């Protein structure tokens, strides 16, 4: 039956061809002769490999291999450089070699849902045109920093994995508009998420978050899903300390950081000649209350942001957002809305 379908497609010079749900254990030889194909559907079969002869399908832009028995990504895919959409969901893929994405420079969509993948390799950086990456229901534990090189990425779906953290480089993706990381083991989100100017949907439901990162309220979200986390509550922690004794290093760092903010700063010019020192100071922050600069000594606090009023999105009445204060002097001032979380 499959062979007769191949013959018919050959006569018609078909652009699209489907052998879905045919209980196939191997691909008919004639498929490699369908050199005009743009779309090939081989999903819902029993395929454990693909013949190297399929490299003749050099015009192929969409390939569906979902729900088969693949234990690895077939090597022949390296020769299908025109591919834009690749579906590998529902297989038995456990690992991805470093060079697995070689030869797929035009890939726009990659779906590897429902496999057993634990690590995305740094080689994913080769998918420079990728817009949608979906790796749900795997055993993912690590997302590489090289994810930042996928500058065209608009949507990433990592739902239902074993992630305990996300790389801070994720916040460098200029086109990212949707992040799905529900049902993982995330304890925090990367600082700097507010820099994702196009982010409109964030799904972090069912994780272990206690609060959102600093300046989270600046994200222009349209949808936020955050139920099932262990957020801190409105419980005031009072300070029993009035002031702190700063180390000489911290005092010097604060002076340099504050001075370097000035337009005509000799220290800022001097830092250009001391790249190692500049790198250390780049990790400094500013007090949420008085804007005083600090390097490594701060008080972790939290403010409760109204989703409807401050972010214009639906959801819980308010969510906790991390804030850093430079001193007990600031923390003990009256009139502010920052809560201490030292007991958490």
UniProtKB/TrEMBL annotation:
Transmembrane segments: none annotated. It holds the Pfam family LRR_8. GO terms for cellular component: cytoplasm. The keyword Repeat applies. InterPro entries: Leu-rich_rpt, Leu-rich_rpt_typical-subtyp, LRR_dom_sf, LRR_domain-containing. Keywords: Leucine-rich repeat, Repeat. PANTHER family: CASPASE FAMILY P20 DOMAIN-CONTAINING PROTEIN, PTHR48051. This is Leucine-rich repeat-containing protein 69. The lineage of its organism: Eukaryota, Metazoa, Chordata, Craniata, Vertebrata.
């Amino acid at each position: 039956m499959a062979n007769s379908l191949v013959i018919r497609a050959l006569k018609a010079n078909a652009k699209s061809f489907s052998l879905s749900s045919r209980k196939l254990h191997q691909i008919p030889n004639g498929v490699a002769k369908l050199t005009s194909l743009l779309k090939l559907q081989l999903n819902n079969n029993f395929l454990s490999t693909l013949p190297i002869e399929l490299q003749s399908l050099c015009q192929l832009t969409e390939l569906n291999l979902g729900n088969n028995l693949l234990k690895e990504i077939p090597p022949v895919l390296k020769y299908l450089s025109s591919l834009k959409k690749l579906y590998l969901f529902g297989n038995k893929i456990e690992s991805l070699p470093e060079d697995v994405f070689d030869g797929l420079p035009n890939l726009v969509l990659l779906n590897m849902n429902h496999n057993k993948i634990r690590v995305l390799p740094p080689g994913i950086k080769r998918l420079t045109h990728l817009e949608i990456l979906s790796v749900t229901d795997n055993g993912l534990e690590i997302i590489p920093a090289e994810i930042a090189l996928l500058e065209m990425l608009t949507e990433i779906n990592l739902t239902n994995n074993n992630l305990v953290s996300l790389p801070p480089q994720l916040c460098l993706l200029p086109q990212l508009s949707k992040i799905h990381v529900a049902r993982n083991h995330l304890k925090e989100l990367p600082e700097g998420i507010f820099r994702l100017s196009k982010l409109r949907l964030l799904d972090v439901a069912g994780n272990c978050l206690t609060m959102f990162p600093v300046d989270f309220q600046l994200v222009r979200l349209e949808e936020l899903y955050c139920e099932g986390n262990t957020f801190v509550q409105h419980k005031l922690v009072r300070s029993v300390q009035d002031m702190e004794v700063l180390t000489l290093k911290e005092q010097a760092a604060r002076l340099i950081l504050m001075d370097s903010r000035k337009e005509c700063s000799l220290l800022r010019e001097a830092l250009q000649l001391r790249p190692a020192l500049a790198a250390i100071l780049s990790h400094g922050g500013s007090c949420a209350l008085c804007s005083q600069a600090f390097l490594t000594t701060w008080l972790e606090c939290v403010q409760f942001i109204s989703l409807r009023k401050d972010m214009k999105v639906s959801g819980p009445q308010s969510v906790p957002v991390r804030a850093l204060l430079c001193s007990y002097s600031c923390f003990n001032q009256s009139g502010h809305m920052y809560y201490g979380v030292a007991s958490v």
